User: Fold this.
Amino acid sequence: TDDRQLRETLWEHVDEQAIPDDRRRELTANGLRAGVVTGQLPAAFAERLTGSSRDAPPSAVAGVAPFRSRRLLQLLPGRRSELVTATRLSQLVLMERCSGEVRGATFHEATPLLARQARPAADGRVRGEAVPEIKHGPVEKSWAGEDGMFRLETGQRRHRLDHLAVDVTLPTGGILLVGCAGDPATTVGDGLLREPADADRETVRLIVIRPLARSLDPAFAVAGATGDEPGE
Assistant:
């Protein structure tokens, strides 16, 4: 929360209008903001987000070494992957606004995450979707249908917030940012990205998603060729 550059100034270089107006209003009402960058970020921000090299250490913020982690996801077209955004919580109280109504819920043994899917476009861009989701409760067994078959799955229940899905198309090197909006509260954004570190300081996460490899729609691929899978 001490890092004003990443929490406020950075967003001056982000195109939030790439998200449709109605979806952007829903995100804001739920304590979230999102936008894309398809050009070059100022060098200072680029180094803060990615480091000058793959092994560069995180920059110091207000005299405290912050966390910065990277995760490489190999995404098969249209297949689900998960990006966990906060540590597992024994109890998560969430106030969610949907279609003008506010509803509250308490989730036990909760893990906030973004459910990710990516699909290749014919021109090398990648269309990606990020949907906030909460896994919660005891581990259960259930039947799931896919591709005309049923399989037995073991896992927690899922609370999926489809009305807050962010669906954008990015070129290679473009980035999608997802962050908190507003003051600390019990919003969806706080549940996903705000994590108290101790009694005097709290951590707010910023999610940066970037396609790393060019991809090709299978309809335009040469027969027998293997194209790159979307990665981020």
